[in-house]
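I am still getting used to backbone structure tokens and would like to learn alongside you. Would you supply a protein for us yourself, any chain you care to pick? Start from the sequence, derive the backbone structure tokens from it, and show both lines together. Go ahead whenever you are ready, and we will take it from there.
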Amino acid sequence: MECEPRILALTMSIGLQIFWAGSAFMICKVMRSWQHKVAGAKQGNRRNRASTGQVRHMITISTGVLLYTFHRMLNLRGLRAYLQFPELAEFDPADARAVHDIRLLVREAPLGLHSPQGEQRALFTEREIDALIPCLKSPRARVRELGAEELGRFGEAAASHAGLLAPLLDDASVSVRAAAARAVGRLRPAELHWVRRLSELLEDDFERVRVASVIGLGLLGEYAVSAVPLLEGLAQAKSAQLRAACARALGMIRSEAPPALTALLFDDHWLVREEAVKGLGRIGQGAIHAIPLLVQCFADPDSKVRFWAVRALAAMGEHSVPSLIPVLRHGLPSGRLLACDTLELLGRRGAGAQPELTDLLEHDSAVLRAAACRALGAIVSYDERSVRLLAGLLEDRDMQVRAAAAEAICTAGPAAGHALLELGRALKSRHWVTRCQVVKALRAAGPCSTTLVSQALDDRHCEVRLAATRTMAAFAGEARTAVPALILMLHDRSPLVRAEAALSLGALGLRARDARLWLKELTRDPYGDVRAAAWAALERIGLE
């Protein structure tokens, strides 16, 4: 069996760990007892006894660290290499040198085309392919495996060189066969005989090769449609890793979700369920019949499955909204939260769920209120009731809810004018951040909120006054009181506000010509930034 050498190697590794740990413990005990004897022999000098104990303690710790480091150096070079590659009886330094040479070759490729994350390379040179040919024919299995992996990283651009991998698919080494199968998938050759070769490896005696061939078929994409029946059969295998690979491959091959893929949504293993959800997300709108099953995944015990279920439903567009509405109305709090996250990703396509999201603004849970605010801000669909509720949440006791409501109401546009009364109350909040967010929301409401913005110009916090100055400058084209209000802000106690008011007046051009006298006075301000803003404004308005 394939697992026997690995089990033996793991047992040897654990035994060595226990041996070295026991040796270090015994040495520590001996050193500790010697320390006590030395300390007891020196009763006359207390300071010398303390310093001697510290030295002995440091020696004990250093000895243990050195022994453990020495053990790791020995074990990693030999036993760990055998644990990863059972076909190697012992670690050969020639393998390490060959691996280094291969990686050095790729690293020195022209234009730095190699990605450290292992992505496929867009370009290659014939010189690099020629340099990999001896590696693919090396007598060392590790070298052939590395050569196949490096060839696969060239991607579809090197599909014409896939024939170099044909002998490796029948290699005696398990690792080489697996690496060659994955490399064929990355190269994506269009010839059908490659699909047949990878399909033959599905019956290999070793699970690692079967998993690699399934991954290779998935990477081939639409070229491997003929292998779908075989993958559906393997989806019932006993190995969870093999079932997960089949789920991933089926999602990458088919334009429609096969029944075997949707059945894997309820597999016993979390990895299989995760890959099945990801596969349905890759298919997208071709798997809309699986939307109710994906909604059921909101109750999955694994967080990764729930995370990818949200992404999969968002990939299916507005077709998923009717299935999300019942969850928003009657689902568990966790399901409602995930439904809000899905609608946030859908954006404007989720406008059909706007009434249900508005109802959630009054929920007892702060997390749900914040999620509903974010979803409403993403779908940009408001009515008078939703805007009023969002404005009321600006005074919510939870900071995250206040921030989410402010971001949402800023996207409401003129519809925010329906909530001027609520925004006026929120402008008196004791939190300056909330008041600043209210001012930004008033900017979205338009010039009809000029009176409230004028009140914010007298706020005790400079950030609120700064936001009010910018908002008033945005109203200058339609509100008559904007320019006089900006002129008053030239005398603000904060240099940031004075500079912002000067720049805002300069942006108005000749419409701010009445502010020339005050801008000239501002050129003698003690702060350099304020003086520079005043001169810049005068240049744009025009000097008399």
User: Anything to note?
Assistant: The two ends are 95 Å apart (CA to CA). Residues 357 and 372 are 5 Å apart (CA to CA). Residues 316-445 form a domain with the Leucine-rich Repeat Variant fold (CATH 1.25.10.10). Residues 1-5, 42-50, 73-94, 106-123 have pLDDT under 50 and may be disordered.
